């Protein structure tokens, strides 16, 4: 299903409400969370809802999608830092329930397996929130990633490094590799919400709506999921 709203504000209210509804219905939910500028207003809205009407988050578990390799949790462009700035510092989720891939891990293979296993041990994610890259990546699963992938290392495409360069002072500082949840891990979530806003997502959204399910467009894997919602603002929906 898809929903098109006029503004980013409406997109964020709808998405935050879906997250809130999930937490209320399932206090011990395992949530898959995403980063990126699309999610900033979503998290701000979720915090506002939770301030207005507090909910017990002591049983909630979260797993983040991805992290740059080589950036510490203290690095302002790490996804770890992003999550604490935008959400976790302002919420009472027990620290041991918050999971983020470790960009500084030295045993990458074990770290990847442990990450996917921890999600499976909880019976999979109850809800996965996703943004989308301009090349159709989800998490950091770049085009041609196998749909049956688990948490793994990716070499970032040039397009992704250019897109994400806006957050760094210099393009050369953008990491070349990242850890990401695999597409299979994402597909095993019981519910998936993909959010896209702004002009720069219009082309990839048009492709997503028309394309076959194919590894050249990672987000197309989601089209086989039985509980998948795409949430768009008018700009991202402009070419549909
Ligand atoms: C990054 C993240 C993705 C995110 C995408 C879009 O590459 N790895 O998880 O969906 O960017 O980000 P934005 O919302 O800033 O456009």
UniProtKB/TrEMBL annotation:
Active-site residue list: 66, 135, 137, 142
Boundaries of every Glucosamine/galactosamine-6-phosphate isomerase domain copy: 7-224
The keyword Hydrolase belongs to this UniProt entry's keyword annotation: yes
Example GO biological process: N-acetylglucosamine catabolic process
Keywords on record: Carbohydrate metabolism, Hydrolase
EC number assigned by the record: 3.5.99.6
Gene3D superfamilies: 3.40.50.1360
Enzyme class: hydrolase
Catalyzed chemical reaction(s): alpha-D-glucosamine 6-phosphate + H2O = beta-D-fructose 6-phosphate + NH4(+)
Domain of life: Bacteria
GO cellular component: cytoplasm
Pathway annotation: Amino-sugar metabolism; N-acetylneuraminate degradation; D-fructose 6-phosphate from N-acetylneuraminate: step 5/5
Gene Ontology MF term list: glucosamine-6-phosphate deaminase activity; identical protein binding
Pfam families: Glucosamine_iso (PF01182)
Hydrolase in keyword set: yes
Primary role: Catalyzes the reversible isomerization-deamination of glucosamine 6-phosphate (GlcN6P) to form fructose 6-phosphate (Fru6P) and ammonium ion.
The family this protein is said to belong to: Belongs to the glucosamine/galactosamine-6-phosphate isomerase family. NagB subfamily.
Subunit structure: Homohexamer.
Protein name, UniProt field: Glucosamine-6-phosphate deaminase
Organism this protein belongs to: Denitrificimonas caeni
Encoding gene (name): nagB
């Amino acid at each position: 299903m898809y929903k098109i709203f006029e503004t980013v504000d409406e997109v964020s209210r709808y998405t935050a409400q879906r997250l809130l509804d999930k937490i209320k219905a399932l206090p011990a939910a395992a949530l898959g969370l995403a980063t990126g500028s699309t999610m900033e207003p979503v998290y701000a809205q979720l915090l506002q809802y939770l301030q207005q009407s507090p909910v017990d988050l002591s049983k909630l578990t979260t797993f983040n999608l991805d992290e740059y390799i080589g950036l510490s949790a203290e690095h302002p462009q790490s996804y770890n830092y992003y999550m604490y700035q935008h959400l976790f510092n302002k919420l009472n989720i027990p620290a041991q329930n918050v999971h983020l891939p470790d960009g500084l891990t030295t045993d990458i293979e074990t770290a990847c397996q442990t990450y996917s296993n921890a999600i499976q041990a909880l019976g999979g994610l109850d809800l996965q929130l996703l943004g989308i890259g301009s090349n159709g990546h989800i998490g950091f699963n770049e085009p041609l990633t196998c749909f049956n992938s688990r948490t793994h290392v990716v070499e970032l495409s040039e397009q992704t490094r250019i897109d994400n360069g806006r957050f760094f002072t210099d393009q050369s500082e953008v990491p070349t590799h990242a850890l990401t949840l695999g597409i299979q891990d994402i597909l095993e979530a019981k519910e998936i919400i993909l959010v896209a806003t702004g002009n720069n997502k219009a082309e990839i959204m048009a492709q997503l709506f028309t394309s076959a399910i194919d590894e050249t467009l990672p987000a197309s894997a989601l089209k086989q999921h039985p509980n998948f919602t795409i949430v768009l603002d008018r700009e991202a929906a402009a070419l549909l």
